[in-house]
């Protein structure tokens, strides 16, 4: 039995760094975002953009593809598959549709998807570690298609996961959906954080404060920055705003640390994390979830 909170937070051993394979190639014909060659992310705009219908149309395509490939990544999960193998599946699915995998070389990120196992909160790098029976794993799939980024994330169970793990996954998705329901034209961004926080409280999980949702379209990460906890940020939501809602819930304490790879964010106490993410657009009537898969009508 490992001494790292194994009894409290499922039966897994702590996640440790494994081998990272060589960088994958993106075919020359695929349009790349500005950071793709250098790894340098240009400064984000300071104000929130109200996107035109034409941009919303392109976002529907990019987000729809991101969602289809997220569903493919989740469906590829089985005991023994490595996250590196899933990265290759995501990379080839996106590039074969003419899309650039947004994470690849974003601020130097070395892979095409983020894969975050058990106590990894987010930004896990796919590697040679096989998924084990009892793990939970999230995939954050994002892609650049026709000049805009689609972005979404989901968490699945590997084999037989304990009840607490299943509850964590269910609660996190419920938190995301409560945040989406609170995102209405004329309401305030604070309502989103409050709605998510309430769900975390109900299940006795912590909603992570360190990582936020974000505006997304031609720029990958832009204002508004969306806190998944009670806050007093004043931002009135208006039609044409496009942003993600992507809460991470954790068991235990949310204190976190980042590995020396400068990406992998893990809980200090070994509590597991789950994450769900949709990209939405505020409309005149309410909002529209952009990251939907027509073949899988469940949000
Ligand atoms: N897709 C993530 C998000 O939800 C960001 C990943 S950036 C990466 O915002 F470089 F880490 F991949
Ligand atoms: Co995001």
UniProtKB/TrEMBL annotation:
A divalent metal cation 1 binds at residues 140, 151, 277. SUPFAM superfamilies: Creatinase/aminopeptidase (SSF55920). Its EC number is 3.4.11.18. It comes from the Eukaryota. Residues 58-284 form the Peptidase M24 domain. A divalent metal cation 2 binds at residues 151, 214, 246, 277. The keyword Metal-binding applies. GO terms for biological process: proteolysis. Keywords: Aminopeptidase, Hydrolase, Metal-binding, Protease. It catalyses: Release of N-terminal amino acids, preferentially methionine, from peptides and arylamides. The keyword Transport does not apply. Its cofactor is Co(2+); Zn(2+); Mn(2+); Fe(2+). Gene3D superfamilies: Creatinase/methionine aminopeptidase superfamily. GO terms for molecular function: initiator methionyl aminopeptidase activity; metal ion binding; metalloaminopeptidase activity. Binds 2 divalent metal cations per subunit. Has a high-affinity and a low affinity metal-binding site. The true nature of the physiological cofactor is under debate. The enzyme is active with cobalt, zinc, manganese or divalent iron ions. Most likely, methionine aminopeptidases function as mononuclear Fe(2+)-metalloproteases under physiological conditions, and the catalytically relevant metal-binding site has been assigned to the histidine-containing high-affinity site. Pfam families: Peptidase_M24. Substrate binds at residues 123, 221. InterPro entries: Creatinase/aminopeptidase-like, Pept_M24, Pept_M24_MAP, Pept_M24A_MAP1. Belongs to the peptidase M24A family. Methionine aminopeptidase type 1 subfamily. NCBIfam families: met_pdase_I. Cotranslationally removes the N-terminal methionine from nascent proteins. The N-terminal methionine is often cleaved when the second residue in the primary sequence is small and uncharged (Met-Ala-, Cys, Gly, Pro, Ser, Thr, or Val). PANTHER family: METHIONINE AMINOPEPTIDASE (PTHR43330), METHIONINE AMINOPEPTIDASE 1D, MITOCHONDRIAL (PTHR43330:SF8). This is Methionine aminopeptidase. It comes from Triparma laevis f. longispina.
